[in-house]
């Protein structure tokens, strides 16, 4: 006889803590690499292409394998695959730390992407079995989302500290003890769960989705790096899009689809996923520009840049606390309709930042940005999760995360182009290499030449690009606020009755 009862309350929250630790490592890994790249370039004799592949290898593996990983977890056991992914993440982290060549590091980074592709959807996919009651599930999702988001600004802080005291491999080695804690806790506290329907894995769907996501992601990565005139990158992106079109057509025909396209028929999943993608643009606006501002304008080092992002974490914690109370009383719609305008106002203030604004002004608006993120991110993802049955929660979570990943890659390319175009146009007569390559290069040239006028031109041009990029993000948040007001139902998880934990769920 199957055990259909969720674990007792204390055990469930301890299990959630284990999942939060696992997700923290992914957030850290995304941004810690940026801090370590200059040192790695020297020690590994890595050229520009290799440095790009240190990041690209991870992103491509993540994009290609997220959907299959979710389906495998649903079919054979989410806990089983989550444990395997955690172990692989730890092994790959150690391999990154011990790499002695650029090729070895690229291969290890690809393994990290494979592990993260399973960790992200399956750690979310086990939440319905751990927390069958909607109110508790929403609170658990808030913890899950916050742990991932907090890892992003912590990356530069942790990485900067480690690089000041140890060799560059330590920024990856720090993952190993965190993974060990996650492994022990997940093994002991998280129940196994899987679909009761022993469906066959859709192998043609796996191949089409993996190839399509790889092509689309790589194409837009190259467009973001090399500019929109790169014909080869457009061709790769077009092939990827065509393969994804073929994947969708196949999903409508096959009896055992890899993803349930019917999810898009419900407003919850459709708009919750869309809101999750749009809120990422606020993150892009922040992480694309503000660390560069700290270094190029305020003269901070990598560690100093990370420390200056701490108000974001404080704001995020405040935002999630407000969201919990507001959602319980007024519902999810109130949180989203409040949160997106907060994000838009914060970003508008950010777009008004100038060379002379100073850190106090920036700290104020990134704190407000953190509040908005704390309000919107858990509410948007909770909205999408409500439409996922426990039967296919791994696949549904993977679909949402894959769409966020694709949207993030495309958004990065677009917003990066806005920034670069406005920066170059603001340089005037200084629009030539190497000054036009990036603001950091331009500042380095100006300081080497002791040319105060050139330094002012470079910094002002960058602030123009930063402003243009953040205005785009603010505009998208305004659009999201209007959509949330129009399409979101009240949605008060705290008032809902607990679901039957055993319905369409095999827990053992």
TrEMBL record:
Residues 15-492 form the Major facilitator superfamily (MFS) profile domain. The keyword Transport applies. One of its GO terms (molecular function) is transmembrane transporter activity. It is a multi-pass membrane protein. It is found in: Cell membrane. The chain crosses the membrane at residues 12-38, 50-69, 81-104, 110-131, 143-163, 169-191, 203-221, 233-250, 271-294, 306-323, 335-356, 362-384, 468-487. Pfam families: MFS_1. It comes from the Bacteria. InterPro entries: EmrB-like, MFS, MFS_dom, MFS_trans_sf. One of its GO terms (cellular component) is plasma membrane. This is DHA2 family efflux MFS transporter permease subunit. It comes from Nocardia stercoris.
């Amino acid at each position: 006889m199957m055990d259909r009862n969720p674990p007792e309350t204390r055990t469930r929250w301890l299990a959630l803590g284990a999942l939060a630790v696992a997700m923290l490592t992914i957030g850290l890994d995304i941004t810690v690499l940026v801090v370590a790249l200059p040192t790695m370039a020297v020690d590994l004799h890595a050229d520009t292409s290799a440095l790009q592949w240190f990041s690209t290898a991870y992103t491509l593996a993540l994009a290609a394998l997220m959907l299959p990983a979710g389906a495998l977890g649903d079919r054979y056991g989410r806990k089983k695959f989550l444990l395997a992914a955690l172990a692989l993440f730890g092994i790959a982290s150690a391999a990154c730390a011990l790499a002695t060549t650029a090729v070895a590091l690229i291969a290890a980074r690809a393994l990290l992407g494979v592990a993260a592709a399973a960790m992200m959807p399956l750690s979310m996919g086990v939440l319905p079995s751990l927390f069958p009651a909607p109110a508790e599930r929403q609170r658990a999702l808030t913890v899950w989302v916050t742990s991932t988001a907090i890892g992003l600004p912590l990356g530069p802080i942790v990485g900067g500290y480690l690089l000041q005291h140890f060799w560059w491999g330590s920024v990856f080695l720090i993952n190993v003890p965190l993974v060990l804690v996650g492994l022990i806790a997940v093994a002991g506290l998280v129940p196994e769960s899987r679909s009761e329907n022993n469906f066959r894995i859709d192998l043609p769907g796996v191949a089409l989705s993996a190839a399509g996501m790889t092509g689309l992601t790589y194409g837009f990565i190259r467009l973001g790096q090399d500019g929109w005139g790169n014909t080869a990158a457009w061709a790769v992106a077009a092939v990827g899009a065509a393969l994804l079109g073929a994947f969708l057509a196949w999903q409508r025909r096959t009896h055992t689809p890899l993803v349930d396209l019917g999810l898009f028929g419900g407003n919850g999943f459709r708009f919750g996923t869309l809101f999750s993608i749009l809120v990422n643009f606020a993150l892009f606006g922040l992480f694309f520009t503000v660390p560069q501002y700290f270094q190029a304008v305020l003269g901070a080092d990598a560690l100093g840049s990370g420390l200056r992002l701490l108000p974001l974490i404080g704001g995020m914690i405040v935002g999630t606390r407000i969201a919990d109370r507001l959602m319980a009383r007024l519902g999810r719609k109130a949180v989203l309709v409040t949160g997106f305008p907060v994000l838009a106002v914060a970003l508008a203030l950010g777009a008004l930042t100038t060379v002379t604004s100073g850190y106090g002004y920036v700290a104020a608006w990134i704190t407000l940005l953190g509040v908005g993120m704390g309000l919107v991110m858990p509410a948007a993802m909770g909205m999408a999760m409500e439409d996922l049955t426990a039967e296919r929660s791994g696949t549904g979570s993977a679909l949402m995360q894959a769409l966020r990943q694709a949207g993030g890659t495309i958004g990065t390319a677009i917003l990066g182009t806005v920034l670069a175009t406005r920066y170059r146009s603001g340089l005037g007569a200084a629009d030539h290499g190497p000054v036009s390559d990036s603001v950091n290069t331009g500042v380095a040239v100006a300081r080497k030449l002791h040319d105060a006028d050139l330094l002012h031109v470079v910094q002002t041009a960058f602030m123009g690009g930063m402003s243009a990029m953040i205005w785009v993000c603010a505009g998208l948040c305004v659009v999201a606020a209007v959509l949330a007001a129009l399409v979101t139902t009240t949605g008060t998880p705290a008032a809902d009755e607990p679901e039957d934990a055993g319905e369409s769920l095999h827990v053992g």
